[in-house]
Inverse folding.
């Protein structure tokens, strides 16, 4: 297991829709292990392959601290197949846009279908933070970032805050 470098907003890989995984080989297993290790090192709730510069449809989520032991999962070729009409507004952040958060409006409950890293079909029913994290990571696999869900004004203000933070770091 290796901690990989996380790429930041502005890297074009974050905007590429990812192709489905077709080979369930050792390279995939290493990628999944590394995603878990990188997410843990960054203390994140989820991480998608494009965030380590790999354009493949793979992500991990770990929100056990809030949702319980079932809420740690690696998903290959995941898709949201059902979403509740009820929505929730909660703050969200992203390891690729560090230091800023904003409230995002999303379906409160979702069903996600995909494959395990071993290639077995898996169906997840999720609510709360688990549902939010899954939607956020699956968005990444479609080249979508949480800032895309904000109103243009809120997005502009958040990106301004983010740029200011990054300038201060330099
Ligand atoms: Ni993210």
């Amino acid at each position: 297991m290796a901690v990989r470098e996380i790429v930041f907003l502005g890297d074009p890989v974050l905007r590429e829709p990812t192709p489905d995984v077709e080979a369930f080989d050792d390279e995939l297993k290493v990628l999944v292990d590394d995603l878990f290790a990188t997410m843990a090192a960054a203390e994140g709730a989820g991480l998608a392959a494009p965030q380590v510069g790999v354009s493949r449809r793979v992500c991990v989520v770990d929100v056990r601290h809030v949702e319980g032991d079932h809420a740690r999962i690696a998903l290959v070729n995941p898709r949201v197949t059902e979403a509740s009409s009820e929505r929730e507004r909660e703050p969200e952040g992203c390891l690729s846009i560090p230091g800023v958060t904003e409230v995002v409006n999303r379906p409160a409950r979702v069903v996600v279908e995909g494959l395990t890293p071993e290639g077995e079909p898996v169906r997840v029913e999720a609510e709360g933070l688990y549902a939010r994290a899954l939607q956020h990571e699956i968005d990444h696999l479609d080249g979508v970032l949480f800032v895309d869900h904000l109103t243009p004004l809120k997005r502009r203000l958040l990106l301004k805050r983010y740029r200011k933070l990054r300038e201060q770091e330099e």
